[in-house]
Amino acid sequence: MSIYDIEVKSIRGELQTLAPYQGRVMLIVNTATQCGLAPQFKGLQHLHDTYQDQGFTVLGFPCAQFANQEPGDNDEVAQACEINFGITFPLYAKIDVNGSNAHPLFQYLTQQAKGIFGTKAIKWNFTKFLVDPQGNVVKRFGPKDEPHRIESYIQQLLKHSQNA
């Protein structure tokens, strides 16, 4: 099973897979609009805007598992992301990223790219997973890793995919 086979729900409730992103570099992020790290939305949007025409996409997965910092329903999350942060990158339905109800996508991501000391659990909101155009999880970034610090990794993957 590849990452592209995993079913996800859009923020509007449509069931789909990640197959439309095959061949693109993806940055998959668990987000929360009420989190102290929410200013990272601006940096994530900047990365998306800068590199989307070169084959890059940010994918946001809202999660309320950390101090319930994503309290609204999917419509409220979408509205908050659009109005407060100007988000245009794809958002998906709220999910769990840890525990027995963890979404299969995050089970897959955490299995492929473990955290510090080999842990699988997501520590907090804004944990980021960088996926190459072939669907391989190449790097995991912690919640405090600012989006601009990921830019060189994105550039490298995009350059490599354009030369392949």
From TrEMBL:
Pfam families listed in its UniProt record: GSHPx
GO molecular function, one term: peroxidase activity
Active site: C35
A GO biological-process term: cellular response to oxidative stress
SUPFAM superfamilies documented for this protein: Thioredoxin-like (SSF52833)
Xref: InterPro entries: Glutathione_peroxidase, GPX_AS, Thioredoxin-like_sf
Keywords for this protein: Oxidoreductase, Peroxidase
Similarity field: Belongs to the glutathione peroxidase family.
This protein's name: Glutathione peroxidase
Taxonomy of the source species: Bacteria, Bacillati, Bacillota, Bacilli, Bacillales
